[in-house]
Write a structure and sequence with these properties.
By secondary structure, this protein is an all-alpha fold.
């Protein structure tokens, strides 16, 4: 997975990652 540094999608990616755990 790509690390969206400074991207507004970083929060969404974090939420998705937590939900997929």
């Amino acid at each position: 997975m790509v690390n969206p540094t400074g991207s507004p999608n970083s929060r969404l990616v974090a939420d998705i990652s937590l939900e997929h755990q």
